[in-house]
Amino acid sequence: MATVSITLNQLVGRDEALARRFESEIREAAAPGPDWDIGCRILAWQRAWDLGSPDLVTVQFHLPGWVKVLAVSIGSSPGDVRKAARQALLPKFSELGSSASGPLPPAASVAP
Q: 83: which of 2, 25, 40, 109 is 20 to 30 A away, CA to CA?
């Protein structure tokens, strides 16, 4: 079972419930994967002319030698983040799952 270590979530402090929903959906998407520790950062972006709240959330997944970035709307419906994360992770799970002989080393720490 894959685990996700969320090293940064910029939604925390802005909308706690939304931050936890994103984290939960990302972890659910990764759980069926191989026994890896996947690093993750959740970055909230906002338009320069609209300083009220972010419009776009970027999710960065990282394993040693690999990074995958996806973007989802801050207004995503429940389940949309899980679906997007699953689609982003599935090719890597398939690629390394067939060639890896064991668990990968823990995800490298990425500075914010």
A: 109
